[in-house]
Specification:
By secondary structure, the protein is an alpha/beta fold. It contains eleven helices and 17 strands. The two termini are 42 Å apart. Bound molecules: pyridoxal-5'-phosphate (PLP).
Length: 375
């Protein structure tokens, strides 16, 4: 949570709290130490290089979704650290480079596996499984939905022989705060694939769990220890959001305030384009300064021309005025990485904060914008 006394002089700005990152990695270190699993950071959540450098000593590698993510991860990791790729989008012209950069690839389909021609012999090949067990009522977040594009159907894996396959990858949940989905999914996989599992060298249990919010980690530790012992395999976890979400806030400033049909509108020097999931998934991000019991209702909106560029309606203890700071908290994952400069509004600066000290890590200016659109 940002300390209001140390807001940067200008906004909008993302502030990364290094202590919160440390807290997340301490929790992962505990899981790793107790269970013997390996930890990958899923860099799609936030591939900011300074963050990757802070995380590098605390992880066994990264999980990536593309050639660019793989190259970025490799530029920060040392050679003993792993890079696991899974994606529906492996291009023919990138196979050679991917197979030299990545250490593990989990194929998304049988066809992708059969069409992959690696140049490297060190690559360990796996399959992404669709266990056909859904835990979300929202199709958009459900890799096990009907006609899913993500992973081989568990029955397809059961029917085939895969000699050269060494691993299994699953990722079927989103922001889970308990482990029941994992336990049920593993039960199903073990009952369907009892002949296949003993031939494997590793299993990657994916991301999607908010590990810091899970009150009792013992069931996770127990299941990992059992899998390792029973099948003699390495077990990987690849969290993204768990590591970065709570560590980041977006500080904005009110630049206009007026009445619209009886409600107060406060225009911020930011927009939902700095946190596109607000619009994409109709989320209302948490505002530090708001108070559910407040008497002043305000609709916080972004600066762009989109009528729906609205963060939400919030209650405050006092009337909002031009110049007030508004900070959205818990916005580390899938925000900066999805941000855009629609309408020519700049990206927020990126700061770190550590022991009360702010440090500007990244500033974008007009030249960066011009470069994007230059011929
Ligand atoms: C294959 C895979 N692994 C890991 C993750 C990270 O998930 P999270 O950030 O929810 O932990 C994702 C997120 O979409 C994913 O698709």
């Amino acid at each position: 949570m940002p300390d209001k006394s140390i807001y940067p002089a200008t906004s909008p700005a993302f502030i990364i709290d290094k202590q919160a990152i440390q807290k997340a990695t301490d929790n992962l270190a505990y899981i790793r130490e107790k269970s013997g699993c390996r930890i990958l950071y899923s860099i799609k959540a936030l591939p900011f290089v300074p963050l990757l450098k802070w995380l590098q000593p605390h992880v066994d590698g990264c999980s990536v979704s593309s050639l660019f993510e793989a190259k970025l991860a490799r530029s920060v990791l040392n050679l003993s650290q792993s890079i696991h790729l899974t994606t529906p989008g492996i291009r023919q012209d990138e196979q050679a480079e991917l197979s030299t950069i990545c250490t593990h690839i989990s194929f998304n389909s049988l066809s992708q596996k059969n069409n992959f021609h690696e140049v490297s012999t060190h690559l360990s090949k796996g399959l992404r499984i669709n266990p056909k067990l859904s835990f979300s009522s929202d199709n958009r977040f459900d890799p096990c939905r009907l006609h899913s594009k993500l992973g081989l159907n568990i029955e397809e894996i059961q029917r085939n022989d895969f000699n050269e396959i060494e691993g299994l990858h699953l990722h079927t949940v989103f922001s889970q705060q308990d482990l029941s989905a994992l336990i049920k999914t593993l039960d199903k996989i073990e009952s369907y694939l009892s002949d296949f599992l003993p031939s494997l060298k590793w299993v990657n249990l994916g991301g999607g769990y908010l590990l810091q919010d899970i009150a009792d980690l013992e069931p996770l530790i127990t299941v990992i220890l059992r899998l390792r012992k029973q099948y003699q395999i390495d077990v990987y976890l690849e969290p993204g959001k768990d590591i970065v979400n709570k560590a980041v806030s977006l500080v904005t400033t009110v630049i206009d305030c007026f009445d619209s049909d009886g409600k107060t509108i406060a225009v911020l020097d930011s927009s939902i384009n700095h946190n596109p999931e607000v619009f994409e998934f109709q989320r209302t991000p948490t505002v530090l300064e708001a108070d559910e019991k407040g008497n002043f209702s305000v609709i916080l909106v972004g600066s762009t021309c989109l009528a729906g560029d609205i963060f939400g309606e919030y209650l405050f203890n006092q009337a909002i005025q031009i110049g007030d700071k508004i900070s959205f908290i818990n916005v580390g994952a899938y925000t900066m990485v999805k941000a855009n400069r629609f309408n020519g509004y700049n990206f927020p600066d990126i700061y770190s904060v550590e022991q009360g000290e702010l440090k500007c890590l990244k500033h974008y200016d007009y030249d960066n914008y011009r470069q994007q659109w230059d011929d």
